[in-house]
Amino acid sequence: MPRPIEALIHTDALAHNIARARRAAPDAKVWAVVKANAYGHGIERAYAGLQGADGFALLDFAEAERIRALGWRGPILMLEGCFDARDLETCSRLNLWHTVHREEQIDWLAAHKTQWPHQVFLKLNSGMNRLGFPPAAYRAAWLRLSGLTQVDGITLMTHFADADGERGVHEALAAFEAATRDLPGERSLCNSAATLRFAGESAEVRGDWIRPGIMSYGSSPDFPVHDIAHWDLQPTMTLQAELIGIQALNAGSTVGYGSAFTADRPMRIGVVACGYADGYPRLAPTGTPVLVDGIRTRLVGRVSMDMVTVDLTPVPQARIGSLATLWGRGPNGSVLSIDEVAHAAGTVGYELMCALALRVPTQVVGEP
Ligand SMILES: *Cc1c(COP(=O)(O)O)cnc(C)c1O
After folding, report:
1. What CDD domains does the record point to (predicted)?
2. Closest ligand 1 atom to the C-alpha of 195?
3. Other residues' Cβ atoms within 10 Å of the Cβ of residue 85
């Protein structure tokens, strides 16, 4: 028998979350952001659930090739653009739209021989200071691009640094509006946090294309301020495993490596066939929520490579083979958001879903 652990990818939840993004910006088109192998879900596994999007955005050329191999003929956007001049040949061959965020990428385009002019997204650095032209250089870059026969259309783009936080998007939006004033073309600004928190404010924020990533995968971009129930999002990945051991502890007994947990009374603990080699965060402390048979309980002791230990006090009926839900959908309609687990471990849902390990057998469930 294979080790009793698996991940489920929920097609219906992906479709629900994409529809939710569209509802937040009904006049905009939707890029499903599928970088990092669809945030760890697997591009091929997430594909059916993301069909409601207008295009796929990512940054790895090999992943773009996989989306074309699935039969997708619609738009694909390379969020970091070309890494060298030869990538333009891949863009021409696969009809990829690409971001232009620095001068050299324009040089490469100017020297590129193609029958089909490209769609480019010209990126403004609106304060994040990662990729993009500074506001003072933006217009000149636009003029240069618009003079190239290799370029067919230019979408104006920026990425917000603080859409999920207190600072919000208003300063960055003002920088974008100042830099793009009078420039023609479509616009793309919003990631998930901006879509959920600010798209309702104005057509300027919504733009023509939104770029929801994390919300599509059922994680709240501003947890713990708001959870997925608040935003009407559904978990798209379940990580579940069975109890393969049960131990009865006396008061004073300890659990696991480093004896990091000490029982203060007699209690039963369950040993779950999931550890950090499966993608469960090693730094999750005692108290991190877990479901056993759909009932909420807590992790106790240290996470090890192949196992975690859980308190069975609230689940007296638990036995060998009982189902532990590490995150996602549990039995009987129970839900444990990946955000709660991530938060307890001092990280974000993004990191946990991206880290789902290759050794975990994964199946796609549900209808779009
Ligand atoms: C990753 C990414 C997104 C999606 O961000 P989320 O926070 O996951 O919604 C949007 N735009 C760009 C440029 C990105 O790199």
Report:
1. PLPDE_III_AR_proteobact (cd06827)
2. 9
3. 14
* Sole residue written with tokens 């783009």: 157
Tokens 């796929």 sit on residue:
56
Structural domain count, the chain: 2
Please indicate if the annotation marks 78 as binding a ligand: no
DSSP state, 296? E
Alpha-carbon Rg for the chain, nearest whole angstrom, is 23
Q: Which domain holds residue 297?
A: 237-365
Query: How many residues are present in the chain?
Result: 368
Residue-wise pLDDT tens for the chain (368 aa)?
999 999 999 999 999 999 999 999 999 999 999 999 999 999 999 999 999 999 999 999 999 999 999 999 999 999 999 999 999 999 999 999 999 999 999 999 999 999 999 999 999 999 999 999 999 999 999 999 999 999 999 999 999 999 999 999 999 999 999 999 999 999 999 999 999 999 999 999 999 999 999 999 999 999 999 999 999 999 999 999 999 999 999 999 999 999 999 999 999 999 999 999 999 999 999 999 999 999 999 999 999 999 999 999 999 999 999 999 999 999 999 999 999 999 999 999 999 999 999 999 999 999 88
Please tell me the residue having the least CA distance from ligand 1 atom 15: 79
Residue 228 lies in a domain: no
User: Does residue 138 have an active-site annotation?
Assistant: no
Distance from the alpha carbon of residue 155 to the mean position of ligand 1, in angstroms: 16
Query: Rounded distance, CA 239 to CA 223, Å?
Result: 20
Do 128 and 161 touch, CB atoms closer than 8 A?
Answer: yes
Structure tokens, 194: 């901006």
The model's pTM: 0.97
29 is catalytic: no
Same domain, 253 and 196: no
The residue out of 184, 219, 254 marking a domain boundary is 219
Q: Are residues 245 and 166 in the same domain?
A: no
**Based on the domain organization, do 120 and 156 belong to the same domain?**
yes
